[in-house]
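Record type: ASSEMBLY
Status: queued
Input:
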Amino acid sequence: MTTSHLISEIQRKKSFLCIGLDVDLTKIPKHLLKEEDPIFAFNKAIIDATHHLCVAYKPNTAFYEAYGLNGWKSLERTIHYLNENHPEIFTIADAKRGDIGNTSKMYAKAFFEDLNFDSVTIAPYMGKDSVEPFLEFENKYAILLALTSNQGAFDFQTKTIEGKELYKEVLETAANYQNSDRLMYVVGATKAEYLGEIRKIVPDSFLLVPGVGAQGGSLLEVCNYGMTSNIGLLINSSRGIIYASNGEDYATAAAQAASILQQQMEDILNAS
Amino acid sequence: MTTSHLISEIQRKKSFLCIGLDVDLTKIPKHLLKEEDPIFAFNKAIIDATHHLCVAYKPNTAFYEAYGLNGWKSLERTIHYLNENHPEIFTIADAKRGDIGNTSKMYAKAFFEDLNFDSVTIAPYMGKDSVEPFLEFENKYAILLALTSNQGAFDFQTKTIEGKELYKEVLETAANYQNSDRLMYVVGATKAEYLGEIRKIVPDSFLLVPGVGAQGGSLLEVCNYGMTSNIGLLINSSRGIIYASNGEDYATAAAQAASILQQQMEDILNAS
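Status: finished
Output:
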């Protein structure tokens, strides 16, 4: 998908919502457990109920790997369902991968070619040759961890390296990687006040913002600091939407929760 | 596996060799491609031919994920084969995972419980709550990336953060994580001269050292700087062993290549 296509979908749907498909079998409605593939059944119902309210879905691969072969099968079925039925949706494999060059190439092939995701999240610690293999694919994106939403972000990311915080060094260094126009960045909503600083370094890049909702970040604050003339934001919510109810009404409840965020986004887009 | 068991295996086999099972279908002998599961057939033959020469195997998960469901199945069969036939072997899932707490817990469950690996490699960028879930499992180990063997390591790892190089900050910070006695560290052999500095911070920890062989690191130099009274080293070689031949003699050739490294290790152990 091109970024201009993504932007036009945001404008059409009045939404820059990304829904995290982090499916935990202990949290989904009990009646689904008798399905042949409960994870896919859950995802399909969530997608059917919410696809008009969001522009992206983000399965976190950990939740699928935790169920071994069956989990991997559920992930494949989910991405195939999205690609076949909703090609207008931007898909994110939240995998946080990164390895030496020839290995990163294998990961890029796995997520971009075999599974046909539009993007994959990447950890920056191993530097240039661990990231660039992901940037070789046209109309595919690597979403680099910059400043994450968890407490552990303060262990290293916000510490000062060569005169600036590590996350800024990551943003500045990555901007010089080959095909860096195919980079987006993860910036946690729990650290919204940092977004102003981040926008000075990457004024136009899309930011994937987790941490609104369950982790306590504020949508309005994120938009105040981080929104660009092309929006430039994908706001993720996972648990607050997909586990809005654990009864038989879970899909309707997810749509209601997504709709509240979508309406807030529409108001923000109309006001800006 | 306990570390004392690992150390006694090193002493019994006179080897601290780890063999990387990074199986690429374009590089394995052509005649294997007609097998029902070529990756597992290759791994099984390599394991059968080399298990007496090494103390650890390290499949890099990227190479399995690149083949989707079939690849994941090959990984499962490989780790089951090792657990059933060679429980004395230390197994490493080279996955370089790391995510927010509840997600890292899912990864830990996937690799330690479902697949029953002894250890998994972890990226440090997201800090404490991304690492600690891996340290909750008794006799299991998280192998944290400190200083990697690739060129991109110089992008961030060797830069100065709060007065010291980032990789040192990672080592010092991680030493304070809960259950940090279950941590080991990745230190690339291509940067052997850094090992002296690293030993000042983690004098007793096991180091997993990739980069000997194909990437150009020297075994003797690594041992000079990094070996402890309990050895404290696992030296990985992947391509140099498993692709020593791409003919029908691939397993014998792999054993020969492994045997050369094992003999060098035996000499070093005898001399020390």
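Annotation: The longest strand of chain B covers residues 90-97.
Annotation: The radius of gyration of chain B is 18 Å.
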